[in-house]
Amino acid sequence: MTDTADDLITVRDLLRYAMSRYGAAEIGIGHGTSEAIDDAVFLILESLHLPIDDINPWLDARLTRAERQLIVERIDRRIDERVPTPYLVGKAYIQGVPFVVDPRVIVPRSFIGELLFSEAFSGEGDASLIRDRDDILSVADICTGSGCLAILAAMVFPNAAVDAVDLSEDALDVAAINVDRLGDGRVGLHHGDLFGPLEGRRYDLIITNPPYVDDEAMAELPDEYRHEPEMALAGGLDGLDIVRRIIEAAPDHLNPGGGLLCEVGSDREILEMIYPDLPFVWLDTAESEGEVFWLSAEDLGVTEDM
């Protein structure tokens, strides 16, 4: 009996095989890619330790038997077990930065990664939400998971010390790997519930991508998402249990002139009904519209004499 890998010789062959299997299986997409072909390309190129930005130079490359077998096995697991591709290859990218991931953490895909590098945080012009990147001296990343946003914040704000917090010790073990690989000594990891480990500390910026999937959506999640830690996704009946706690606690941890940047998915209308007096600023990215909000410290009632 012929093994599938015996018949697939080139990268082009493997990409065709992947797309045929993806199309027949109607897999779920959304762990760093929005199209099936991008998911397949990422799986193949990352498995071969090739640059992931363009598959075209490699399409006619002939692969070794071991390479072909590895990719076929990963494609088969992607389909048969619905394992998200980042878990299969052990890596996910945000803003071109590679982060180690495994099933102990949610797959990094926060829109906040793009926003940190955007005009909104450039410290220049009327569109900027902060005074100057160099003036941001302290950042808290709440629900840090793999540590990706904390590490990106350290890259964006060169003078900032970053405290990253998560309730999951497993997640912090993965975050520690990423901090060791990518950090420069300015990211500290803390185990605890939201601001619990940060008592008495205040920050120029708080960023957070908390759990925000409501109970109904949790019950209907595609199989791919069930490989992720439930605690990193589930946000209660309306999805906002953790978000509410963050908003209510943030004023005690913000410096005047600072602000809170929080991702909430599609819960904008609910949040605005809960907090009708808060002037949420909703931010868009290339792949999202109104799924991340900004509240300044002053909007949250922080004053100079606090």
TrEMBL record:
Occurrences of domain Methyltransferase small (ranges): 138-217
GO cellular component entries: cytosol; ribosome
UniProt name for this protein: 50S ribosomal protein L3 N(5)-glutamine methyltransferase
Protein source organism: Pleomorphomonas diazotrophica
SUPFAM superfamilies documented for this protein: S-adenosyl-L-methionine-dependent methyltransferases
Recorded GO MF terms: nucleic acid binding; protein-glutamine N-methyltransferase activity
Alphabetized CDD domains for the sequence: AdoMet_MTases
PANTHER family documented for this protein: 50S RIBOSOMAL PROTEIN L3 GLUTAMINE METHYLTRANSFERASE, RIBOSOMAL PROTEIN UL3 GLUTAMINE METHYLTRANSFERASE
Gene3D superfamilies associated with the record: Vaccinia Virus protein VP39
Alphabetical GO biological process terms: methylation
InterPro entries (UniProt xref): DNA_methylase_N6_adenine_CS (IPR002052), HemK-like (IPR004556), Ribosome_uL3_MTase (IPR017127), SAM-dependent_MTases_sf (IPR029063), Small_mtfrase_dom (IPR007848)
Keywords assigned by UniProt, alphabetized: Methyltransferase, Ribonucleoprotein, Ribosomal protein, S-adenosyl-L-methionine, Transferase
